[in-house]
Amino acid sequence: MRTEGEIATNTDPTGPWSLVVPLKPLARAKSRLGRAVGGDLRPRLALAFAQDTVSAALSCPAVRDVVVVTDDPVAGAALAALGARAVADTPAAGLDAAMEHGARSVRTRRGGAAVAVLNADLPALRPDELARVLEFSSAFPRAFVADAQGIGTTFLSAGPGVELRPAFGGASRARHLASGAVEVPLAGVDSVRRDVDTGEDLGAALALGVGRFTAALAAPVAPAADR
């Protein structure tokens, strides 16, 4: 397993990208994962996934800042402690609305910012792989990364002045393609694709190597992930 020490909370404050990470209240997050790890561990893992995602994003030189959209005060405080800016999910109208709200929050402060949204369940995320995705995406108005199964989406970007137009959930890869977004074709960015919804997904993330927050819970998680 990959474990990391303290992670810088913004290695380059002049980086071109602002990232938006939406997170459900922990009591409702990762419901499918509960079948493998149990109800007590599930919300703790949901927070750990988000902490590892945000930590990795903030240590990517291309990232200027990270905005977390959540109504969970515990999660908001924990992610703010890492260097993210937490904003309330005032639309309270689902994932896409939360992403658009986060993008507006970024651009209210910095008009014309390049914005990307990232799933909160990427515990194996590596800053160098994220940097490659962002570099590729910078050449297109909108770009996205399909998940490891090739069905969903883990990342969507919008260049300066471009509307995000997210269409997450279910078969979102097809919807993002139909909307004109360019699919990121890069090999070797598995950590950006590996979201975690099930015990099987968690086992795959552990095999890639997870960040320090998820690793701290790995002892009870590893046997459950095999189920």
TrEMBL record:
Q: Which UniProt keywords apply?
A: GTP-binding, Nucleotide-binding, Nucleotidyltransferase, Transferase
Q: Name one Pfam family in it.
A: CofC
Q: In which pathway does it act?
A: Cofactor biosynthesis; coenzyme F420 biosynthesis
Enzyme Commission no: 2.7.7.105
Any GO BP annotation = F420-0 metabolic process
User: Which molecular function term from Gene Ontology is one that the record holds?
Assistant: GTP binding
The UniProt annotation places phosphoenolpyruvate binding at 153, 169, 172
Q: Which family does it belong to?
A: Belongs to the CofC family.
What role does this protein play?
Guanylyltransferase that catalyzes the activation of phosphoenolpyruvate (PEP) as enolpyruvoyl-2-diphospho-5'-guanosine, via the condensation of PEP with GTP. It is involved in the biosynthesis of coenzyme F420, a hydride carrier cofactor.
Name of the protein? Phosphoenolpyruvate guanylyltransferase
State the species of origin.
Answer: Streptomyces sp. gb1(2016)
- Which gene does this sequence derive from? cofC
